[in-house]
Amino acid sequence: MTLALLSYPETVQFLYALGNESRSAKLGLDRMRALLERLGHPERGPEFVHVAGTNGKGSVCALIESCLRAAGRKTGLYTSPHLKEPTERIQIEGQPVPANLFSAAFDRVHRAAEAMLAEGELDHHPTYFETVTLMGLLLFHELGVQTVVLEVGLGGRLDATNVVLPQVAVITPVDYDHEAYLGRSLEAIAGEKAGIIKPGVPVVLGPQRPEAEAVLAERAAQLGAPISRWAAWRAKDLALTAYGSRFVVDGRRQFRIECPLAGEHQVSNVLTAIAALDLLEVPAEAIEEGIRTTRWPGRLERVSEKPEIVLDGAHNPAGAEALARHLRRFYSGRRIWLVYGAMRDKAVSEAAGHLFPLAEGVILTAPRHPRAVRPEALAQLVEHPRLLVASDVERAIGSAMEMAAPKDAIFITGSLFLVGEARSLLVQ
Prior knowledge:
The chain is α/β, with parallel strands linked by helices and about 425 residues long. Helices cover about 40% and strands about 20% of the residues. The protein has 2 domains: about 10-230, Mur-like, catalytic domain (UDP-N-acetylmuramoyl-L-alanine:D-glutamate ligase, 3-Layer(aba) Sandwich), CATH 3.40.1190; about 300-425, Alpha-Beta Complex (Protein-Tyrosine Phosphatase, Chain A), CATH 3.90.190.20. It has helices at about 10-15, 30-40, 55-70, 100-120, 130-140, 180, 185-195, 210-225, 265-280, 285-290, 315-330, 350-355, 375-380, 395-405, 415-425, and strands at about 45-50, 75-80, 90, 95, 145-150, 170, 205, 225-230, 235-240, 245-250, 255-260, 300-305, 310, 335-340, 360-365, 385-390, 410-415. The strands form 3 sheets. It has an 8-stranded mixed beta sheet, with helices on both faces. Strand 15, helix 13 (about 375-380) and strand 16 form a beta-alpha-beta unit. The two termini are about 30 Å apart.
């Protein structure tokens, strides 16, 4: 990889100038395929585990990557969005790619795109997400990564990541989100997620609603893709706490699991990850060690005590419902203060309906993001007897800490962008 022409801050500024990744999304794979050909087909280097779904796909990606690394493989991990820096999206062996390599990869992609635009071979510069996806594929190939765990950005069928032929495809629970892009019914959304299923390639299905399961299974059958289900692996002797879980997994093999990721939903995420890892023939000891050492920031992540402060990117109704179950199970005897902010394309009223009744007080705020709903507008959409508005995240956290007693708990949630900004303030 040659030296970058732009500095890292200039690279990030250019990426942001391409527009918000959702707002500027141009679903389709023609640009990706044309650019990959110009770049020498870096997607043909490593093997891939391709992961789609509405909820849990990031956690499943983190679990699978950690186990593959524990097994001695040189790993890549591609996820979105980032919490603080865009380099987090492209990880090599568990670490964000260095800024100079990130910028060098951007230069390669940008120069190729500019040349092809000048030659009339592209209709449009690649979008933010397309550009970073191409950068990741370049880096994984050139740095000699053996296995990449690749998270879908939006949907699956037309997502920029859907240019790889994976060893295994994984689809975590399908639920309502991004309906404007993916369709208004679960069947339509599942049809988009099913787009990552490839002929003859094994697919792992996490927990699904019946109508989504039917669509996914039908597509797999059409393509001759063998299905492995999370339910083929059973969790027993479960000991669940607010901060993780321990259990035994029984199936084709047996594992003793210590999972540091909080939330009851992580148990099914672990079983889904194990189903994929079993297909990849990862040794049992690497699976146990990899799960024990998995880190996935911003998801039920405790960052402070007295008062306890927990970050959770519950950005859609299903995520809010999972967080509400966690609160009822582990925090029912304590006062909860909620710092909440959301993006404009989210089902705010439904998410708030799950969470707000459990809170002593709610502080509405907004991260520094063009799609964020201003807190004053949020206040018109939701109801709570103790509703406060804070102009920015730092003030919202300050207000919550002023009101919370040492034994109380503060949850910061509603958007991963909000969580990322809060994490920058709270985690040094």
